[in-house]
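Please decode residue identities from the backbone states below.
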């Protein structure tokens, strides 16, 4: 682990800060220069231990981690941007058209001659016969020779098959880089932790608004719209999804929202997935509409017990199989097997991506445990259907692993079932 501000400047005896969004001269807030240097250093460290000579990344989360560049959520599924980094060089970045010129003006941490315009196939819209993949592969191979790593394997995270074939046609040995990048990203520094905490605080406020608006007659999609506006007003840079699930739709869990109208006594759960400065939340809460039944209360109490049992275990050195064993088997809550129940009793790392390390589940963790370390940030989520079929409880807490255990950063009340606008 790199000895950086995570170790030297973080006072774990104090609560994790949730600073304001503005830059000020009277408080130390998120230090973006420090953040950029930390992420590049983590990438270099992971690369040096990987056996690769360089990494070529098309995954926007990896591109942002390495280059601190972003051009908008619309680019996430286009596979049109990429960055190349060797062990010691500064990163090369190929961006969409005029974005490269913009970076040369406004991103001084990137070297100007390494900010280049690039375009490949836009997921097949431009065929391989146009030659863009071949030209890009040749350019990359020349840079690998310039950096002295052309005879070493090149790690690639995700790419279009024609790009893979073009790299191989240049004689480049291509290996998986996603594991290398996940190695780099799994330990957060102080700035990342504060950004994740700020993102969670934005959802705290959003749940307060949801609780005020959740009444009979309003629809799931209307709550989603209200929550989207609240988050963007608060400073979110991307509301990836808000799942709003209620009533008979709660069991089995569909992971979406509809235009269903809320009714008196409905059990309703929500998942708010959004980001602040790229750092994401995954934050479930269950609220009842006006009243609750004993079966709904029992389901909530059970989901709360399962998540509390998991939180109690979290500390450095604990392995994820220990946590997964605290959760029920799939068959115990109505599913045929662990694959079918995946994502219901679940843990996953948070950062620039929604699902980073560690992944915690009976599906994968019992046979492939992963050790927790200080500085990891992840979400734990549990689910329990109501015995009478009228709803289900879904709870999620985001936690930061500290030297002595963990700190919860999702603060909207969740110890007991929250009844909104109680009759």
């Amino acid at each position: 682990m790199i000895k950086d501000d995570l170790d030297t400047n973080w006072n774990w005896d104090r609560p994790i800060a949730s600073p304001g969004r503005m830059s000020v001269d009277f408080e130390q807030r998120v230090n973006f220069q420090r953040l950029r240097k930390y992420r590049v250093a983590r990438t270099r460290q992971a690369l040096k231990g990987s056996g690769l000579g360089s990494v070529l990344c098309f995954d926007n989360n990896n591109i942002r981690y390495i280059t601190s560049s972003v051009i908008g959520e619309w680019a996430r599924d286009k596979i049109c941007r990429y960055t190349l980094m060797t062990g010691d060089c500064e990163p090369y970045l190929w961006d969409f058209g005029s974005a490269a010129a913009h970076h040369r003006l406004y991103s001084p941490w990137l070297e100007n001659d390494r900010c280049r315009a690039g375009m490949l196939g836009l997921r097949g819209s431009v065929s391989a016969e146009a030659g863009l993949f071949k030209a890009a592969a040749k350019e990359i191979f020349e840079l690998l020779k310039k950096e002295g790593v052309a005879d070493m394997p090149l790690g690639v995270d995700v790419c279009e098959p024609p790009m893979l074939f073009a790299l191989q046609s240049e004689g480049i040995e291509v290996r998986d880089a996603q594991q290398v990048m996940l190695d780099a990203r799994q330990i957060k520094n102080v700035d990342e932790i504060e950004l994740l905490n700020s993102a969670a605080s934005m959802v705290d406020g959003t749940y307060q608004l949801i609780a005020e608006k959740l009444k009979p007659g309003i629809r799931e999609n209307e709550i989603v719209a209200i929550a989207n506006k609240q988050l963007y007003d608060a400073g979110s840079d991307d509301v990836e999804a808000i799942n709003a699930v209620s009533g008979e739709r709660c069991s089995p869990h569909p992971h979406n929202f509809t235009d269903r109208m809320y009714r008196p006594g409905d059990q309703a759960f929500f998942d708010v997935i959004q980001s602040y400065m790229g750092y994401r939340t995954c934050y479930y809460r269950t609220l009842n509409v006006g009243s609750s039944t004993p079966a709904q209360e029992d389901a909530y109490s059970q989901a709360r017990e399962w998540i509390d049992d998991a939180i109690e275990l979290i500390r450095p050195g604990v392995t994820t199989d220990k946590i997964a064993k605290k959760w029920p088997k799939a068959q115990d809550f109505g599913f045929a097997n662990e694959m079918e129940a995946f994502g219901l009793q679940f843990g996953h790392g948070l950062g620039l991506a929604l699902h980073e390390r560690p992944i915690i589940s009976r599906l994968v963790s019992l046979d492939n445990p992963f050790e927790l370390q200080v500085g990891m940030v992840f979400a734990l989520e549990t689910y329990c259907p109501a015995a009478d079929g009228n709803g289900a409880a879904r709870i999620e807490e985001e936690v930061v692993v500290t030297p002595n255990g963990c700190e919860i950063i999702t603060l909207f009340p969740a110890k007991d079932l929250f009844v909104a606008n109680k009759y």
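Observation: Residues 190-420 form a domain with the Creatine Amidinohydrolase fold (CATH 3.90.230.10).
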